[in-house]
Amino acid sequence: MVKRYEDDGAGPGGGRGRALWVDQPAGRRRMPDPVRRSAVRAVLIVAVTLTEATIAFFLTVTGSWLALPMSLGAIAGTVVATWGVLDVLITRQAWNQRHGVLSEPSSTARGRRRERRRARREARSAPPLPPRVPVRGESTGIWPPPTGTPGRG
Predict the structure, then answer these.
(1) Mutual orientation of helices 33-62 and 67-99 as an angle, nearest 10°?
(2) 72-110: per-residue pLDDT in tens?
(3) Residue 1: CB partners within 8 Å, gap ≥ 6?
(4) What contacts 105, CB < 8 A, 6 or more positions away?
(5) Are the C-beta atoms of residues 98 and 55 closer than 8 Å to each other?
(6) Handedness of CA 112, 114, 119, 124 (dihedral sign)
(7) Cα–Cα distance measured from residue 123 to residue 121, given in angstroms and rounded to the nearest whole number
(8) Are 85 and 45 in contact (CB under 8 A)?
(9) What does the pLDDT look like over 9-29, one tens digit per residue?
């Protein structure tokens, strides 16, 4: 959306309107609503806490009796502000786990997965192998088998 205002014709270009502002596309996607809500709440809590801490500092410097209650309030506000920031991080993590970020496997992973599927398909379609006849010494548990056993080098 472009807002325009009318010149009085004094500048170059006569009476044409000039852009007051031009909307540009955002660089990042908008945060999900629950995450935005917790982020706004955290920013407000942190702002109030910083204001309260500043007032407590100045009251302490001036030696006012309000310094102690304001300092205690600032300490409590710090605890609440920490909770607010943690709430943003936890809400963001929960959102990502529930609604998931779409991830695409790398080309290497895709190729390996394709090879595994092809090998499984071939194993299913291949005729079954005949039963193997045990080599001398295998069934008796003698190891290593005696020399001269076929198939063993």
Answers:
(1) 160
(2) 999 999 999 999 999 999 999 999 888 876 666 666 777
(3) 23
(4) 113
(5) no
(6) positive
(7) 5
(8) no
(9) 555 555 566 778 887 777 888
Whether 94 and 37 have beta carbons less than 8 Å apart is answered as no
Tokens of 113: 């997965």
Total-model pTM: 0.51
What token pair was written down for 92? 């963001």
Distance CA 36, CA 39 (A): 5
Residues 85 and 99: their CA atoms lie apart, in Å, by: 21
Q: Which residues pair with 3 in a beta bridge?
A: 21
What one-letter code names the amino acid at 70? M
Degrees (nearest 5) of the Cα angle 33, 96, 99? 80
